[in-house]
Amino acid sequence: MLTNYAKIAIRSLLKNKFYSSINVFGLTLGMACALLVGLWVKDELSYDRFLPGVENIYNVRVNYAFNGGPVETAMYTPGPLKEAISRDVPGIAAITKLNDSGPILVKAINSSSTEKSAKEQGEYASSDFFDVFELPALYGNPKVALGQLNQIIISRRLAEKYFPNEVALGKTLQLDNQKNYTVGAVLENLPSNSTLQFDWLTNFKNYEEPWMNEWGTNSVLIYARLKSGITVAQTEAILKGIFPRYAKFNNQEAPILHPMADMHLYSEYKNGKVVGGQIEYVRIFSIVALFILLIACINFMNLATARSSVRAKEVGVRKVVGAGRSSLIGQFLSESILTSLLAIVLALSFVSAILPTFNTLFEKQLTLDLTNPILWFIITGLVLITGFLSGSYPALFLSALQPIKTLKGSGPSSRLQFGAGPALFRRTLVVFQFSLSIFLIVGMLVVGKQMNYLRTKNLGLDRENIVYIPLEGALAQPQKMEPYRRAVLRNPSVASATLANRLPIDVRSNSTDLNWPGKDPKRLVSVSAMSVGSDFIRTMNIKLLGGRDFRTGSLADSSNYLINETAAKLMGLKDPVGKEITFRRGKGQVVGLMKDFHLNSLHQAITPLVVVYYPENTNFLLVKTQAGKAQQAIADLEQVSKQFNPTYPFTYHFMDEAFEKLYKAEQQISTLVNYFGMLAILISCLGLFALAAFTAEQRTKEIGVRKVLGASVASIVTLLSTDFLRLVLIALALASPLAWWAVNKWLSTFAYQTELTWWIFGLAGILAIAIAFLTVSYQSIKAALMNPVTSLRSE
What we know:
The protein has about 800 residues and is an alpha+beta fold. It contains 24 helices and 25 strands. The strands form four sheets. Strands 17, 18, 19, 20, 21, 22 and 23 form a seven-stranded mixed sheet that branches. Strands 4-5-10-7-9-8 form a six-stranded mixed β-barrel. Strand 4 (about 90-110) and strand 5 (about 115-125) form a beta hairpin. InterPro entries: ABC3_permease_C, MacB_PCD, Macrolide_Exporter_MacB.
């Protein structure tokens, strides 16, 4: 029976090559999209699942009631919090703190490798790190090694890179041209789906500074492993007493536990509660992929029901010779499943071909592992679900036809009339298809408009022609920072230069140390903080509303401050210049009031900012180049850097690049939305094209009669196109409210956003109508130009 079904299905597909090709190609695109998104979603959901006991590991964060406003959640916490939790919370099995060093120079001292130095990503962690994270070791004892201040733990990648064909244990690596470490253990490489990403690890005390042990400064990441049977609620109840006991703040600060397994997907907090994060994009694109697959299935159903009159006599004959309804349903479902099988083979080839490009674009390492039984389970399920979904309605509809009606009439012009039901069903499916397409077109336009808004919005400071150089190696020595800056300024290609501990477009450091006369001692406030050197205002072209910039080399300014408008409002100071405040460097005066500028991405509102003149505590040299002389400036900067830092590789970046990185996730989402939108439109147009072709074929004689009676080509094209365009207009009316709700919700994740105007929906409608008209008009014009003699010959 199954063999017979397969033979009939193959004959049917070969007999109707045009419509079969449309179906197979549409399903191929839909399945390829579903597979690709499925691989991406699987990778997103797998983050940190490789860690043993990950369900008991938590990232410790702190909820603060800042500025009398909503609760804010900080991922970085005060350094002393780790020791306080270890003492006071009995449900903690192990706890550790760490700090990301960023890429720094690693040099092999006794290696046969030709590549002896490069910048590598590492971490400084407290000695109990491996009590929390049970990472597999290839060689050595990582717990013992981390307890030693002169030892370093490295990944397999670093071991093979710096000590090829050698045993890495006992070898020496130098960090940042300063201190030598002995390799005490080698770990297996961390997978790409790990939140923790490092290639070397050494004791936190090698990095620790006195200010990191202050309760008012958030400087470390803390991870804890709970004891078996201890709940989060029990632990958080005890954690509430930590800050009042040690920090002497009010009782509105509370450490909370964020599951390690949820860190990648759930990263956004609002008023102290998790509200989402990357999981939103996982949900959105899972739904979009299913929609695209559904659009492809709709094409199949539309064409099958449209062509039902062609196959009606076949059904009648089969019923007359004894075929039951179940056998007919089996036959039609076998055709749709065979089509799905052909589509999945092409889809696998398509995904395999584009996966490298996808991985590069989205910085993933996805693979199509055909040896994985789970993948075959997914493929089988995809084929069966798609086959049954696309073939169900046609099978049920055609198998229910009465043989007397289907065989009635034998003339070539006889037409089987099914009534309004199937036609209404087809129209509904077309409306649904284009509703989804219009929804995605609106998404494409809004996301593109917001990305353009992000790129062009005035941040309140310059980011063009700004080059920043990390202060590494000898340049990190406080006594060399200002001489280095002055040497850079001697080059004609350089307009100005300043020192800063953070990039002014990505200020993450915050402090609760701000005080001013009249402040309620029980009131807890948090402000962003920056340490800078001379010429900060001029280099970044920040507008001063009052006062002045810091003076070069001024000892008096070392205890003075610059603040922004938001900080002035926080303190209730209408004319803050000259007023006394207390911050990180003690009591001092506000010497300048800066106009607000954006300190972070536009997801976040502008926060209060206090800028300290502290050039010795900076990490970057920010250089404004003369217009049109960027390349010359880079060459000059390299020459000066080699003089001051001869043993360290010269590294530079453009501020524009750092700004783009703030919106990397949004840029990837924009790319996906564009691709998905175009894919949905293409599949919808394929179905519309085939449906228009079949409609024109069915109305060939009607068109011939109209032409004989004097109808023009334009009137016939209008006749054939109007019905389809009316459906697109209905789709526009249905899709617009849903699209408005969805894009408005996405835009609400930005503190600053583009305006959602009516013309976006108008443009989406015009594009949809234009695309539909171009798709349908080809078949309409072709039918209108046909010689009526040919179509009426048999009458």
